[in-house]
Structure formats: C-alpha cells, structure tokens
Amino acid sequence: MACTNEFIEFLCDILRPLGEVRSKKMMGDYVIYVNEKCVITACDNNAYVKKLPCIADMMADAETGSPYQGAKEAYILDLSDTRKVLKVIETLWEHLPFPESKKK
C-alpha cells in the first residue's frame, strides 16, 4: 500500500518549522526533504528515518522496520509527538550529507 496524499501533507506540515520541506514520489512511495536533505522515507503511511548513532538515545523505544524489501532497518517515527519528531529530524539533518549534485 502506498502513502496517501493526506499522510504526506500531514508529515510535511509537521516539519515546516524546520525550513523548506518538499516531498518527492519514488517508486510509489515518497522521500521527504528538509532544506534539501533527504530525512524521511515514507512508505505505507509510516515515516522511516535512518538508524544513526546521533538519534539512538531519542529513538531507543521506537519501533523499527524496513520501508521496502531490501532496505536497511530504520526507525519509525511516532508522529503523535511533534516536538520529538522535530528534535529527531533536526538532529538527523545535522548529521546527514547534502545529496551529491548530478553531473551533466
């Protein structure tokens, strides 16, 4: 089951305090960018974030799963706690690289 438009809009609205937010549809699901860094993979109306040490303490009791077959295990964000979501994404954003520019 792919993400609904309502879920993607809800997710993007939560993240707006962090800056420019955009979604990009990829193979039926979505990736969410904040200030041009990919921070969330959204699949089946769940928001997945990379399991990185910088957020391990904050996500210690979070559910985990794989957004799609063959993907690495990731944390699933609990979107009911907006403050925690913003703190997790803000911390994650600081540790993720900007996407490499495509060569022409």
Please provide the ordered H/E string of secondary-structure elements. HEEEEEEH
Mean model confidence by pLDDT: 92
pLDDT < 50 stretches: none
Number of distinct beta strands: 6
- Percent of residues in helices: 10-25%
The number of distinct helices, counting runs of at least 4 residues, comes to 2
> Given the C-alpha coordinates, what overall shape results?
globular
Give the CA-CA distance, first to last residue.
35 Å
Radius of gyration: 13 Å
Strand order of the largest sheet: 1-2-3-4-6-5
Largest sheet data:
6 strands, antiparallel
- Please report which band the strand proportion falls in: under 5%, 5-15%, 15-25%, 25-35%, 35-45% or over 45%: 25-35%
Overall SS class: alpha+beta
Keywords for this entry:
single chain; 104 residues; alpha+beta; six-stranded antiparallel beta sheet; 2 helices; 24% helix; 28% strand
